[in-house]
Predict the structure.
Amino acid sequence: MPAKKVVALGGDGVGPEVMEVTCHILEHAGFNLEIAKPFCGAEAFKSQGNAFPDEAKKLCAESDAILFGAAEGPSVAILVYLRWFMDNYINLRPVKYYPGAYSPLKNPEGIDFMLIRENSEGLYPGREGDIPWLAQRLSDYKDPFGRTLDFYGEGKFAIRLITQKGSERIAKYAVQLAQERKSQGFPGKVTCVTKANVLRQSCGLFRKTVEEEVKRAPGIAYEHFHVDDAARRLIRFPNNFDVIVTSNMFGDILADEAGEAIGGLGISPSACLGGQKPYFEPVHGSAPDIAGKGIVNPTAMILSAKMMLEYLGMRKEAQALENAVAKIYQEGKYLTADQGGKASTREFAEAVLRDLI
């Protein structure tokens, strides 16, 4: 079989650090991958004034999958390209506890669910402006209390978009994922999260669309929670979830909360799917306060690579990589500082690689 083509984009902050050790693992574990590492990110911006040179874009277009580290400033341009230009509308965030991880919960054992965040609309990207400007253009608009926009005076507005197309395609993916997980022994349940009691039209559309899609899938259970209640339940009853689907901002917030429940963002991976080319990235962001110190936890980046391997059909390799990570946590000898250990980023990665080879 020809090697799968992967492009590794480090980005900003700790992104290049976690990317370097993850690629080191993938390259030395004998996986059938061809990994390109184009010049990009903060360093490319400093020298060329462009964080995402044409050569990097070309390699992405020709690849089978993309690994991305983190965006802080310059590399936001990369993120915009990968997410919106390539229309990766699915943000899939696994929430799984690995015994030995430093969870704040008393009993985190058994937490294993998927959070799906709609990745293309809602309040992102920001569509904002001055309230007086909007009041001029919507002079006849009145809120449920009869107030026009002039009532509010000076200030700012933000526009939230929930479309039929966006709701339908994310709902279909959620149901499909629940069906796949049910075949693997999981409950086969979709939990829809909205604020439909306040945002009756936009969240109402999202909720109705998900409900209708679930009805077309025999054997798939369904429940709905308002986002504030869902946030509480993620802490109180995390084992009760299987597949959560929600809109962009709610998903962004809830995914970080769920990540803390299993030990922190250093453990939380993600995949962005559904568009022209998928990309896989850690949830933790650029973490500029620890960049360059060699102490960042690379688990989230490594597990994002595991998700990439699954996408590429390399399930055996993906499982081996996940098993190696799980073993490191269970043994507790090479954990990074965020997990109560003293290992460096490189030492953690080398321990994972030793288990693989």
